[in-house]
Amino acid sequence: MAEFVEDEDMKVLKLEFEWLLREHVPKVLTQLGTILQECSKCLRLTSMPSKGATGEIQGEVRPQDYFMLSTPNSDTLKGYVAVEGENISKADLKFKLPKASSSGFRVFIRERLPWKLKQIQDAINYLQLAIEKVEETKANCNFSSGQEVSKLLKTEIASGLLTINNKKSCSNSPTGCGRNNKFLAKGKTRLSLPDKTPVLDMLMSGNQKVFKPGLPDDVVAYFCLNSDRLVLSIYTLTTLPVPPQSSKQPQENDPVGQTFEYNSKWMEITSHFEVDCSIPRLSDSMLLIGAALRLCQQLKDKFAVFSVLPSR
Amino acid sequence: MSSSSVVPVVLWGSTPPSHCISCIITTYNQKTIVTGSTDGQLGIWDLRFADDGEIKIIPRNLIFAHSAKVTALAKATDGWDNQSSIISAADNGELCLWDTDDGICIQTNVIAGMHLALLSFHVTIGTGKEWRVVCYGSYSDIYVLDALSLEVLYTLRSPSATNWISAACVVRPARRPEDVVVAVSLSGMLNIWMLKPNVDSKYSEPTYEQELKQVTNSKATGICCNPFTQRSILVVCAREWLIYDAGDFKFLTAVSSPPSQNWMGGNFVAADCVLIWSRDGKSYLYKLPALCCPGFQDQNQGQFKFYHAILSRSQESFRCLKKQVNRALCPIFDPAMFFSYGRRGPYYKLLLRGGSNGSVSVWKLNDDLVTSTKAYDANATGVGPLVSCSYADCWDTTSTPCGLIDSLDDCGQAIPVSASLYLPAQDCIVCGREDGSIVIISAAKAVIAQLLQLPGSGWPAHRVLLGHKGRVTCLLYPHDEYPRYDREFLVSGGADFSVKLWDIFTGDLLYTFSTHGGELLRLTCTPPDCSNRVQSCICSVAQDHSVALLGLRERKCIMLASLHAFPVETIKWRALDDFLVVGCTDGSVYVWQMETGHLDRCVSGQVALNILAACDEEKKSSTASVPSKAKSSLGRKISHITSTLPTSAASAAVKKLRKSSNQQASQSPSSSPRLSGAGAEGYGEVLSGGPLKVMSTKCGVRDPEIQVIMFDIEALICNLLTEEKPSTCW
Predict the structure, then answer these.
(1) Which residues of B are less than 8 Å from A148 in CB distance?
(2) Is residue A178 pLDDT above 60, yes or no?
């Protein structure tokens, strides 16, 4: 195919490719590393002195630690939560549920046994994988070919199938891009999509034990993230005297009316509501991940230009 | 159409398939090596031991298994009767059970998440054995699966300190009836679970937990229990490897990695000898001092020094092994390593390495190598592999495999085919090539000329369309998909950013669309329920993330959607609302008005998923009324794993929300031909009509296409029986 492109053009293209590898990529990698570090710090943010030493208190402490969670225009739920890193370390929630057996009650989460927000933990882990990958590549930064760069990016954002070429790099694959599942994109997805946990799994998972002195048997509470918002879902249940005749098709958006078997008892979900609050550092993290993703994609797009360079 | 009588013949072409190995294992009997590639293929290699100690590796099969990177492999069973079954896990959560003897997929399942490793073990239930698999990855639980059904039996979790598992191993403690899992989490917690044979609860909690202080700051990449004494545990981290006493988890020793190298994994080779491999594909053999080998009585007590030998591939030794120097220069990134200690037969200790260039290397660790280790010498060149092999080696032989139209241009080298399209109605194949030419030729005549005639005896009449500069990347014959398109229209997209419209019968270039600013990635037809104007269009996607609707009759681009910041992943239609819905890899969704070209909305997160799901609902209801759309031509089906828009596999994020996910996942493995043999299962359903069909596939994205010719013997016999007078064959 080289015959069809002018020789002069090819020469220039080669030079540009070399520049990209020698000058541009290390710069972008450094920038990428910085963004990812910043984001990771932001996600891990905790008010606890993380290193133990008095001087080393990480980040600006405490300003946005506590968040109000309450139902608007009613006192069904009133309370606050403290979010540190991936944990809900403290919570004080007052319920007045008309449908539940004990209508008014109050539960706490204490620092000893925090509620783990898996979505944040997963995001942190994905970020860490991405950081490691960037560091690794920066460390042996003498790219003899574009392959290593493309491979790194491949692991970092959705990309695909590796070609064993010496020169040609970014196999910006149409099929590979179809899988939104590399570290950064995965991390972002994890944060931006709320967990779709069935109520049965919420009961089984042992998470409910975090609430002290314990929720009534017919109430289930569950924390999850939806983008930058912390969402608390409350379900109330009733025990059915007989197993249901026809199990209702579980509908995605409306859990009310679903039935399931738990502890050899059949339960039906009678009501469901959600309260949420915005957590500023999460929206910051989302922005940072987005920026890192874009940076990666831009570098990848630049590589794509050079796919016309002869490979063999 | 019967499936049993179809004989596939693979025309590999003159270029060997790329096979970037991401994981590697051997079967228990050490007769077969299985490799998984980043493109989702599984390589099956025979390992043959000659009597004189020589080892040969012979590539046997290439299974088109997954549509994503293979992340883990495990043996499914080691029973005498079924030694060849393998379980593979892919990046998109697919799990498949394979019979490596004939390349058939026995079972599939999808478990959300990226699975890092699979570890197989067995439990005794009554008098029988049941095989199970431990599976962990980008989630905080460990799944225990049934090795045959691939269903989750129960989940291991640690309620007090949940985090992802970074390394785990399965061991059977001495005089115990059941195995245990020893796992280290990302935060450095070590947990031990008993693997109970009976499944009484969905969740199982650890019986032992301890924080490994030395591991907390770096991630463990491997863990291994000394199988010889069962008294020590090896934990490999990126910067150092550590040995613990298995009894009380007392820290015994740590050895850091060579400068600027990270450890990747390791294993015990002997009671007092460990083999640790680093990320650059070198392995280091260490003899442990007696202090670090509790439970092992050695004659040479009092040695406190580490000794080691390096097993590596130095540049020189590699060059000796390989005929072609240029391959030696290609560095190996992220090799996959595996240590295999034969439980039966010859009891070989083998170290395997799979490289990103598709090569498999084997070292045999003889006992004298273990005993004769000497103090580390920085200048030591190391020991080269005993044998190394890659698919490319098969191409180095005298009879290079050929492609379908390789000898078309008799002069010089064959031009690789970069995109091809088989038109069953005309029995012709359209091949776009690397140099920009498009060849249209009768498939049957091409096969005759390529395979049966002597080279140089001339080619049948064919048509060459010249116009593209650079590679032809995609082809579309819209009339084959929907009869509303004109019969003569053939559309091609190229690396030169242009979409060209051809008259397939005359060979004329009708029009060139210069709409995009990037290499064309795919061309698709518009759905039949769109407005009349859009119905005569095709949809094109380019590498600059733009989507265009190109009017074939109008010779005009009627819409260009081009501000997507990320690659286009899915395209869906809400034809009745006149909306084109574009899903991007970052999870954002753009809704475009087709008639006006306005961007209606741009959303992300849950709303984006809802919009995509809503499009599917409309599609479902519309296909229900138009059942004739079930046109599953060969090309279509195989295109799931090649270059066109993979609607089913693409929307991985959407997948988990959709109830049809299982069905879809099972689709992609079923479209996995085993290319190297005579097994014809799975082809029959997509065959119709004449005795000869061609389908094509690719190993890697930039690889040339591989053509698979399928002779339907039954159809051939039918044709011969009915053929009293010569039929008019195009």
Answers:
(1) 333
(2) no
Tens-place pLDDT, residues B612-654: 988 887 766 654 443 333 333 333 333 333 322 333 333 332 2
d(CA B240, CA B255): 5
Residues of B in contact with A179 (CB under 8 A): 67-68, 91-92, 649-650, 652
Can the peptide bond before residue A213 be classed as cis, meaning omega within 30 degrees of 0?
A: yes
Please give the residue of chain A at the shortest CA–CA distance from B469.
Answer: A4
Comparing C-alpha atoms, which of B696, B74, B148 is closest to residue B417? B696
What is the rounded distance in angstroms from the CA atom of residue B568 to the CA atom of residue A301? Answer: 13
* B469-522: pLDDT as tens digits: 888 999 999 999 999 999 999 999 999 899 999 999 999 999 999 999 999 999
User: Which residues in chain B are contacts of A205 at CB distance < 8 A?
Assistant: 203
Global model pTM greater than 0.90:
no
Compute CA distances B39 → A138, B92, B360, whole Å.
Answer: 25, 12, 17
Q: How far is B569 from chain A (nearest CA, A)?
A: 5
Rounded to whole angstroms, the Cα distance separating A290 from B488 reads 45
Mutate to test the interface with A, among B585, B647, B668, B703 (most CBs of A within 10 A): B585
Residue A236 tokens, joined: 């109330």
Most confident of B245-254, B297-306, B715-724: B245-254
**With an 8 Å Cβ cutoff, are B436 and A1 in contact?**
yes
Contact B231, B245 (CB under 8 A): yes
Interface contacts A/B by beta carbons within 8 Å:
179
Partners of B260 on chain A (C-beta within 8 Å) are 139-140
Q: How far apart are CA B209 and CA A196, in angstroms?
A: 29
Q: Specify the DSSP element, H or E, that contains B74.
A: strand B70-75
Identity of the residue in B38, B334, B567 whose CB atom sits nearest the CB atom of A161: B38
pLDDT at B653: 26
Instruction: Kindly determine whether residue A307 and residue B519, on different chains, have CB atoms separated by under 8 Å.
Output: yes
Nearest-neighbour CA in chain B from A292: distance (Å): 11
> What type of residue sits at position B30?
Q
- Determine the pLDDT at residue A158: 31
Q: Which ipTM score applies to this complex? A: 0.80
* φ and ψ of B446, to 5 deg: -65, -40
Question: Which contiguous run of DSSP H or E holds residue B89?
Answer: strand B85-90
Of B163, B434, B587, the CB nearest to A189: B587
Q: In this structure, what are the phi and psi dihedrals at residue B690, rounded to the nearest 5 degrees? A: -65, 175
- Regarding beta strands B349-354 and B387-390, do their DSSP bridges make them parallel or antiparallel, or are they unpaired? unpaired
